[in-house]
Design a protein that fits this description.
The protein has 337 residues and is an alpha/beta fold. It contains 13 helices and 9 strands. Strands 1, 2, 3, 4, 5, 6, 7, 8 and 9 form a 9-stranded mixed sheet that branches. Helix 11 runs parallel beside helix 13. It starts with a strand and ends with a helix.
């Protein structure tokens, strides 16, 4: 079953459904109040469409869609996402070969994040988008926004397996006006979430990321520090939160703390190229070029060969020029340039 929630997605929906129609036994779409051509487009692909009154809760809407899914496996995807060509060819092999204890397959989500200043970053993350249908409410989403299915998988004592199934996400590649509207919506929902669950580290982490998108750097840093203090982040989110703090501390020229958080990130995500680069820059600016040099060289080598998802579940694509700048500064200090 392909499971979706939509609202006014006529711009993106057709391409999304075209990418999954050949692998889907059924397409389940819950519409939360479209007034454009979304429903007509969905039905043209043979989707079963159900109406749901939006209540500021993404998990609730996703769970409504789960109730109608009848296949053994469920792939959840958004209208602004597309299943890659290669993944269409091998997704059913993954399903047929999955051991009984595997409750979900972690897919690679590639997102080109357009920042409010016009710059962009390619983020590569791992999320359990393809999971067994244990029936609602045995399997369900949690969280008002940035909702998760993985706690439900863990509660069922099932495991999550890495796959190279790739979903291309266009959701952050929007106009500034669209992005500001999306960020404002997420901010309001995350405020509700942390008020309802004040010790939910994941909600605080997402709030911190959203505050960063709003350019509220001090508030962003405070939220992410509190997320870590909650003590209940998954390894992948802890690694990402630590990397964010390493970046923020480096920006503030607090390189000793930047090094600490880069190493914390690598403790949970030793293969993250992004965090390795943060560590190298921290060492460079702490006056330890002899320690920074091999890391910069290793990062450059990995960038040429490594395109898959780190086992830790997250990475951010770096500019080769940025790494070369760090390496050249390092070599200059060592008298090798």
């Amino acid at each position: 079953s392909v499971s979706m929630i939509v609202r006014n997605e006529e711009k993106f929906l057709a391409e999304c459904l075209a990418s999954v129609k050949d692998v889907a036994d059924e397409i389940i779409i819950v519409d939360t109040g479209s007034y454009d051509n979304t429903i007509e487009i969905a039905k043209s692909f043979g989707a079963k469409v159900y109406n749901y009154e939006w209540n500021d809760d993404f998990a609730a809407a996703r769970n409504e869609a789960l109730k109608y899914c009848s296949s053994d496996w469920i792939l959840y995807i958004d209208a602004d996402e597309r299943l890659s060509d290669e993944s269409r060819q091998n997704i059913k092999n993954y399903i047929s070969l999955a051991a009984e204890d595997i409750g979900a397959l972690i897919c690679i989500i590639e997102s080109n994040h357009i920042q409010l200043d016009g710059s962009s970053e390619l983020h590569r993350g791992g999320y359990p988008r393809l999971f067994r249908n244990y029936g609602y409410p045995n399997i369900k989403f949690q969280g008002r926004v940035h909702e998760q299915i993985s706690p439900s998988i863990v509660d069922l004592k099932k495991t999550l397996a890495i796959s190279d199934i790739t979903i291309i996400h266009l959701g952050y590649n929007r106009t500034r006006e669209e992005m500001e509207k999306k960020i404002k919506r997420n901010y309001q929902l995350l405020l509700q979430h942390v008020n309802e669950e004040p010790l939910n580290g994941y909600a605080w982490y997402q709030l911190g990321q959203t505050l960063g998108q709003m350019r509220l750097k001090k508030e962003s840093e405070e939220a992410i520090r509190f997320a870590i203090k909650c003590g209940n982040l998954s390894d992948s989110i802890y690694a990402s939160a630590s990397a964010t703090l390493a970046q923020l501390c480096g920006n503030n020229k607090n390189f000793q703390e930047s090094l600490y958080w880069a190493e914390e990130s690598l403790r949970k995500a030793p293969d993250s190229i992004y965090s390795q680069n943060l560590k190298a820059f921290s060492l460079l600016y702490l006056g330890k070029p002899e320690l920074a040099k091999p890391i910069f060289i290793s990062v450059l080598d990995q960038m040429k060969t490594k395109k898959s998802l780190p086992l830790s579940g997250f990475d951010i694509e770096l500019s080769e020029d940025l790494v070369l700048t760090g390496l050249n500064q390092t070599l200059k200090l060592l008298g090798e340039n």
